[in-house]
Design brief:
Layout lengths: L1 H7 L13 E5 L5 E6 L8 H9 L7 E6 L11 H7 L4 E6 L9 H8 L3 E4 L3 H7 L1 H9 L3 E9 L17 H11 L4 E5 H7 L14 E5 L10 H4 L6 E5 L5 H9 L3 E4 L5 H14 L4 E4 L3 H9 L5 E7 L25 E10 L2 E9 L4
Parallel strand pairs: 3-4, 4-5, 6-11, 6-12, 7-8, 7-11, 8-9, 9-10
Antiparallel strand pairs: 1-2, 1-3, 12-14, 13-14
Helix pairs in contact: 3-4
């Protein structure tokens, strides 16, 4: 199963909105005769790849797969049919598939055909691997990764507004790699105005993410680098009901997409925007600031994962912004917890990555 999980990760950035899946075929005496992973969206699933690699040696053997095999016709035929046809005797599964067309049906189909099925092997790791897919299925919105770079005293910019560069070159390289596997990258209009970013991955990654600016009144300038490159790399400007129609027409003419939320409350409108992205089957959303939009997401319990780049610098200043604004927690006990998954030294910087969990007071 550890090998199957390792194989599955090779599909990161290529298979979404499908989940990453890996599979290994063993003979009755435990020899590995086939391996496979879901390589790209619309392509063969991991089980089929592994069974094809094993060929006739799969007969009477064991299939180890990170996710419950599908039992429905989608872009590909059901994997359960391929498993049964290959003569597999036993199937070992990491985690169940929450997709309504599967959700236990794959396991039931295999057992009905007389196969021995064991589920829940390295289940925590298998579930974590497919967390973005599960978020989309369960909540109808993308998996939200909040990313920021800050000084050791928690500032994301100096009191005069300068923020380049708090983090070092190694950290920025990691950010570009992260961008390259995202479906979308989001910033608030304040960040867009202050930094005039491109929000692209350099060099390009597996995906070309949609660039989103949350901009209630359509203040994004026509001369900005985002707008000027909108015909080559997609840009979506998310506005509120008060956005002037003439400004929207200018942005449209220059190639930007427009999403207009109807809610007057900005936090409620942000929730609607995430739901819209979910309907578009966007799975991974990277939010790069600023502090206002990160604060709204934190207050709404909408951040799933945090990437904090901490630079050994002291900026100070009561007017220097913190990473996350919003209402915030009323007490330390009401703070959302970060379950740290990994810490990495990047030059002089420290990257802290973790899952965001609800407060436990």
């Amino acid at each position: 199963m550890e090998r199957a999980l390792e194989l599955a990760r090779r599909g990161e950035g290529f298979v979404e909105p499908n989940p990453q899946v890996g599979a290994v075929v063993l003979t009755a005496d435990g020899r590995v005769v086939g391996e496979g992973w879901h390589e790209r969206h619309g392509g063969p699933h991991a089980e089929v790849m592994a069974l094809e690699a094993a060929g006739e040696a799969a007969g009477g053997g064991t299939l180890v797969v990170t996710l419950e095999p599908c039992c429905h016709h989608g872009k590909t035929p059901p994997c359960t049919a391929a498993v049964i046809a290959a003569g597999i005797r036993r199937v070992v599964i990491g985690a169940g598939d929450p997709f309504p067309a599967v959700d236990g049906g794959g396991i039931a189909s295999l057992r009905a055909a007389g196969l021995e099925v064991e589920s829940g092997v390295l289940e925590e790791a298998a579930t974590r691997l497919t967390a973005p897919f599960r978020r989309l299925v369960s909540s109808g919105r993308p998996w939200v990764i909040a990313k920021w770079a800050m000084s050791l005293d928690g500032r994301i910019a100096a009191s005069g507004g300068d923020s380049r560069w708090i983090s070092g070159a190694a950290s920025r390289g990691v950010v570009h790699a992260l961008r390259g596997r995202m479906d979308a990258i989001m910033v608030g209009v304040g960040t867009a105005l202050a930094d005039d970013p491109l929000l692209t991955s350099r060099p390009p990654g597996a995906r070309i993410p949609l660039r989103i600016v949350v901009d209630s009144t359509a203040r994004l300038p026509a001369t900005s680098r985002l707008v000027q490159t909108a015909r080559e790399i997609p840009v979506l400007v998310a506005v509120g009901p008060e956005a002037p129609q003439e400004r929207l027409e200018v942005l449209r003419l220059l190639g930007c997409g427009i999403w207009r939320g109807t809610e007057t409350d900005r936090d409620a409108r942000l929730v609607s925007l995430l739901a819209h992205l979910g309907r578009e089957r966007l799975t991974n959303l990277l939010v790069e600031g600023g502090s206002g939009i990160l604060g709204s997401l934190r207050d709404g319990g909408l951040i799933d994962e945090a990437w904090a780049f901490v630079a050994p610098k002291l900026l100070g200043g009561s007017g220097a912004p913190a990473a996350i604004a919003g209402r915030g927690a009323a007490s330390v006990g009401a703070a959302q917890r970060i379950v740290v998954e990994k810490t990495t030294l990047l030059g002089d910087d420290l990257l802290i990555r973790g899952l965001v969990k609800p407060a436990v007071d």
